[in-house]
Amino acid sequence: MYDIVIRNGLVIDGEGGPGRDADVAITGGRIIAVGQALSRGRREIDAAGKVVAPGFIDPHTHFDAQLLWDGLAQPVLEHGVTCVIPGNCSLSLAPLRAADRPAVIGMFQQIEEMPPEAFTERFAKWTWEDFAGYCQQIGPGLGVNVAPLVGHSLIRLWVMGSDSQQRPATDTEIAAMQALLEECIGDGAIGLSTSFVDVDANGRPVPSRFADFRELDALCAVLGRAGGRMLQIVPEFYDVDLTVARIDQLADLSLRHGIPTTFSPVFDSRTTPEAAPRILARTEEQVARGARVWPQMQTRPIDISFSLLNPSLFLARLPNWWRLLRRPLAERQAALADPNVRADLIGDCGPDGGTAIFGGLLIRGGDRAPAAYVGRTLGEVAAERGEGAAEAVLNVSLENSLDVAFLAANGGHEDTGRIGPMLANPLVHIGASDGGAHLASFATYGDTGYLFSEFVRGSGHLSLEQAVKKITADPADIWGLSDRGRLKAGLAADVVVFDPQTIARDVERPVFDVPGDGMRYVRSAIGVQAVLVNGEVAYEDGAYTAARAGVICGLETA
Amino acid sequence: MSLSPQRRFVTPIAGESVEDLARRALPDQPATEAADAIRSWNLHVFAMRRPAGLLLCSDIVFVEPPRAAAAL
Predict the structure, then answer these.
(1) Coil vs helix vs strand at A92
(2) Chain A residues in contact with chain B using a Cβ-Cβ cutoff of 8 Å
(3) Helix, coil or strand: residue A200
C-alpha cells in the first residue's frame, strides 16, 4: 500500500508532452509510480477535473529572512511553489560575522525594501555566522524546499571587511574567497549571486561591485569545479546596452568554466520596446555559441504601491522624498509640515508640480484613507482640492497620519501580446518574482497563477503543458535540481493539484504579519487544491497543514 | 550563428582615472577630448554614480557612442 495516491487527475509531468489521465503514487517522500489503476494508498486524494503537476520552482526570491520565522514562506507555497531559491542579487544571510549584521540588514532594507525589524525582532537567537549555521537554523522548520544561493557581497565582506567596499581584492583575498565559496557550497549553497547595480543603505555600491573581473572569474572557477553551479547576476537592467554587455560577460564565464548563468530582471517596457527583444536576440547568439545564459522574466505587470509610512522604490528618483522617508516617523511628520521641506519636496517633482509623476496614481486605501478619495486618481483629487499633485500627496498623507496608500498601476511589463511570446520562448527562464522582498511596494506572490490565467487561459500564448514545463522541469534543469521538477518514479514527491479552469492569483491585499508589526502586500492563491512537499501534504483546500517536510536542496546535490 | 557587433566597452583597471582609461581606450584621440567622450557615453558611471567620481573595476565603460538601432 502506498502512502498517498493522487487519483483521477490529468497528469502533466513537466516534460512538456500532452497531459494524460493517470494516478500518482507516493511513498516515503518519493514518487513511486505514475500510471493507471494503481493500488490503494493509506491516503487518497481525488483530483478529478484537476491537473496534477510537479511542484513549481521559484528561482528568484529573497526569503532569506522570512524563512527564519516562516518555514512555509507564506503565501508562496499555496500558489503551488514547492522550491524557492533565496540569496539572489549578491545578498544572503551567511556567511556573516556578527559585527557586520547591521550593514547587511541595511543592504536588504535599501535594495529589497525589507524593514530592519524583519531581521531582528523574531529571532533574537541569531547565533550563526557561517553558511552551515544558517542552513541549520532554517532547516528544521522548513515546509518548502530551499535551494539557497550565497551572496558575493557576503563572501567579500567576510574576507575583506570594510575594504570590501573600497578596493579590488588581492590574490590572497581572492584565494580566501574561493575557499569560502567552496565551503558554502559544501554547506548547502547551490551557487553564487552577484550584483552590478545595487547600493547599500548609505548609497554606496555594495561589496560585489568593487570586484574586478579577475575575482569574479576565480569564483566562477569554483562553481565550475563544483560540478557547474549557477552564477546569478543583477545587471544594469535599466539600460539595454549595459545588459547586453553583461550577457557577453556571462557567456564568457559560462563557456570558460562550464557553468550555467542567469540574469534578472528583464522587463518589457513601452518606453524602450526594443530592449527586451534585443536582450533575447543577444542571448540567442550566445546560446548558439554553447553558452548557458538564462534571462529571467516575470509574468506579472509592474504595479507599485507606496505610502509615506515607508521608503519606496517609487520615490527613489526623488532625492528629497527618498531622504525624508528614511527619517523616523515622528520626525518625518514634523518635516512634512515644514514649509521649507515641502518646497524642496515639490521642487523635486519638476515644473508641473508633480502631475506627471503623481497625477495618474490611484488612491488605493490604507487605514486612514478618506473614503471619498479611494479609487480615484490623485490628479482628480488634487484638482478638487485646488492643489498640485505633489502637494496633494503631502497633504492627504499628512491629514491622515501618513496612512494613505497610492498605487502606480501598470508601470511596465503589462502588454500581454508582447510578453506572451517572450515567456513562451525556450530561451526565457520564467522567474524574477522577487518573492519575500519589496514588502510594502507590491505582492511578489502568485506569478505562477497569473501565468495560467493570463497566458494560458487568456491569451493562449502557452499551452497548459508548456506553462507547467516552464516552471517545473525547465528551472530544475537550469539549476541542476535533478531530484525535482518532474512527476517521475524515483524523484522527490513535490506535487501540486490545481484546477486549470480557475488557477489564478487573488487580489493584492495588505497584511500585518511582518515582525515589528510591519505591513506587506500579499496575494492568495485561487484554484490550487493541494500542494505536497516531499510527499507530505503541506497545503490543502485553502489551509496550510502542520507538515514541515522541506529540505535544503543544496545539501542533496553537494 | 556568429555574434553580431555590439557597442564596445572596457572595464577599468584598479586605480585608473577616467583620463587614464580614455588614453588606453582611445589612444588616437587628444586626451581631453577622449576623456570627455568617455564621460558623455557613460552617464551611468559619471553622472549617476554616488559618490561622484567613483570608478569601479566591475563597471562597463563604453568606448563608443550608442549604435543606431538599424546597425545592431
Answers:
(1) coil
(2) 167-168, 196, 199, 203-205, 208-213, 216, 236, 239, 241-242, 244-246, 248, 274, 278, 281-282, 284-286, 288-289
(3) coil
Cell of A358: 503623481
CA distance A170 to chain B (A): 11
Nearest neighbour of A212 by CB, restricted to B6, B14, B60: B14
Q: Is A245 close to B9, i.e. CB distance below 8 A?
A: yes
Residue with cell 517522500: A29
Cell of A1: 500500500
Torsion of CA B43, B49, B53, B55, to 10 degrees: -90
DSSP string computed for B12-24: PPTT--HHHHHHH
Cell of A184: 558554502
Cell reading at A248: 557577453
Q: What are A31-89's pLDDT values in tens digits? A: 999 999 899 999 999 999 999 999 999 999 999 999 999 999 999 999 999 999 999 99
Closest Cα partner for A468 from A437, A513, A500, A502? A500
Is residue B2 less than 8 Å (CB to CB) from chain A? Answer: yes
Side chain identity at residue A158, one-letter code: W
For the beta carbon of residue A229, count every other beta carbon within 10 angstroms: 26
The mean predicted confidence, pLDDT, of chain A is: 94
Residue A555's pLDDT band, with cuts at 50, 70 and 90, is low
Question: Do residues A525 and A78 make contact, with C-beta atoms less than 8 angstroms apart?
Answer: yes
Going by C-alpha positions, the residue among A144, A145, A73, A51 that lies closest to residue A503 is A51
A89: alpha, beta or left? (left if phi > 0; alpha if psi -120 to 50): left
Counting one residue from chain A and one from chain B, the pairs whose CB atoms sit within 8 A come to 58
Q: Are B72 and A278 in contact (CB under 8 A)?
A: yes
CA A477, chain centre distance (Å) = 19
pTM over 0.90: yes
Q: A-chain residues within 8 Å CB-CB of B50?
A: 199, 203-204
pLDDT digits (tens, 9 = 90+) for A246-291: 999 999 999 999 999 999 999 998 889 999 999 999 999 999 999 9
Give tens-digit pLDDT for B37-64: 999 999 999 988 888 889 999 999 999 9
